[in-house]
Each structure stands twice: as C-alpha cells, then as structure tokens.
Write a structure and sequence with these properties.
By secondary structure, this protein is an alpha/beta fold. The protein has helices at residues 19-27, 52-57, 105-120, 131-148; strands at 2-5, 11-18, 62-69, 72-81, 88-96, 123-126, 152-153. The chain is globular. The chain starts with a strand and ends in a 5-residue tail after the last strand.
Length: 158
Amino acid sequence: MESLEKNENLTATTETLNTDALIEIIYRGKNLPQDKRFLSKEEGGVFGYSPLEEISFHEKDLHFPVIKIGDKIIGLSKLQKDPYKDKNYWIQFLSIDPKYQEKGYASKLAEEIFRFAKQEGYSLETSSYTEIGYEKLKDLFNKLAEQYSVNFIDKGKL
C-alpha cells in the first residue's frame, strides 16, 4: 500500500484488493451495494464495475487496484487474469469518481496497477481504450511499463 499526499491535506492511499475484500467494502454483508456509487452507471453509479454475480464467478481471476481517501474508495480498476496467457493480467478499466477527477488520482491508481503487476511477476495488457481513456492513459501506461519494467501489451482504441 502506498500513501499519497494531496494538496487538500487529505491522505490518499492505493492498494490492490482481492474479490472478497472488495465485496465486503461494497456490500457490507447485504445483497445490494451499500454505497450508491457502486451501482451500475444506468442506476447512477460512478464506477464501471461488474455486478456481484459476475465478480463471484471469476473470484480468483480478479484483482481490484483502488485509491482511497480514508475508507472511501475514490478510484477503482479491475485486473483479470488472462485465461490464454500465463502470468498476464488484462486491465479491464480504470475509473475515478467524477468528484475527484483532474487531481492526479488516475495517475496514482495506474501506478498501483503497474506496482502490483511487478510485485506479482505479471505482464499487463489493455482491453481496448475508450476515446477518453486513449487520450489520458495510453502514454501514461507506456511510461509506467518502462518505469516498473513490466511487459505491457497495448491493444489500442475500441
């Protein structure tokens, strides 16, 4: 876990959660998300995240890099083990709560993705970028791959 100081005098931390830890944070033992930000985008949620049934199905194949302020997750990413290549994660998405965008949190979350891949000895591969993801993340991911010496496969735009 890495601690990050922001100019708002709040401390943001990054870590990578397993499926059980993320489910506990989101659902707190209930059937529905207890934090409305984790609902589907259609229902007003802010993260592009899989419903509980989908998460449980791939339980051992998923990891979730997060960035938090206190106990509140403000950014979330999803890594899925590649079923076709040994020691490779697919970066499924990276999403920051709109209230916290444009403050450098996406860059810090991306660093956590590459730090975790390096620690686990995995390579990384992007899913296809959205247009905005391509603009904001493509160069950053390539820079972090070099910085962390992680093999990185860049798929390009959707």
